[in-house]
Predict the structure.
Amino acid sequence: MILNYRHKIDGYSLPFAMFIFIVIIILSGTLIMAAYQNSIVFNRVLLIERLESNSISAINIMLSNPNQYKENECVEYSLYNEYADSVTLKKIQWGAFDIFHADAYCKKLRKSHSIMIGSYQYDSSSVALMVPDQGKSIALVGNVNITGTCKVPELGFSQPSIEGKNFTGQKIHSIIKKSETKLPKLNENLKKLDLNYAIKNYINNNNQIIQYDNWEGDSLCTSFTSDTTSVLYCKNKIYIEHKTLKGKVVVISEDGIYIKSSANISDILCFAPYIIIEENFTGNLQMYANDSIIIASNCNLKYPSVAGINNQDEISYIKIGPKCQFYGITFLSSDMSNELSQKSILSISENTYVTGQVYSNGYTEIKGNIWGTLYTQKFILRTPTSIYENTIMDANIDIHKLSTNYVGVDLIEEGTTGGIIKWLY
């Protein structure tokens, strides 16, 4: 009985061994496959990291010589003449600023980066105030403080008494220089930004054109890495209310644009004959109008915002209402005769802070504060009883309160050096 039992055990050893062998093969194959897949994933991660690095390197190359690249022209080359180092570079104008786009790729993998850059970087020696010499002094009335280099008429500043008010400001902390007889012309890249420019450049070929009257969506967000621009267009008035617009989006109206406080807006461009922002709005955008821009009270236009008017036919008007915060660039430019263009007014209301750069080849009415620089043809002061030319009352201009990290626009084409405004999405 014992011999028979042992014989039966020996008879089952071969199938058992085969079973163990198959299990070992399966486990080994699984481990080998897992190792192989891990190797693929690891190599893919390394390649993605390399493409990420290449994309950032390409951006830095563009920053080192930004004027080398033409707008809307793709440039392709190999960074190091090695495997997986091919990049495509492209420069486009986005309103007052430029966008540099770098696309690193290998096979089907791609890594992109976009940045917004400006052509001016903060310099404490830059001009705080420039007014051309037309043979008249600049009258300071009430609590006026100006800090920074000033280029003003040879007669300089005066301190008359107007409507019972005398000069009560602190000493002008400025380096005073005699100005030229003409205001420097505005940068040509800014002068071309108007409704006609928008229709010509955005209502065409590869862009996604959406008729605003027929659009029922509540949000439109387009990445700056996209090859196309989303364009909301309407011949009639456009009311932006309870909608989110973000990124590479252009809004064009041939009548006018109203922006409500309920709108959620970031980085977009707006073009129209006139643009009105209602009170309590918060966001950042670039606005270009032919006739007027009105920003109501208690608005917060975040950096980098732009409000610009280019006009050849009519008197223009920009008004930034009371208790507003505006971070960026404001300019008013007219190519009409001097007599008409100087009737155009850029107005900064009481308790309003404009941080950045301001340009007006008409009048500037400042009752608030400019933390940055101002170029203007003339000042105007309007009171309930009279109008005074080349007069400032209860206002402040201080370039030293501008952040040392500020990057803006070369307003008068001085050849200034720019920098990165922000990394885009």
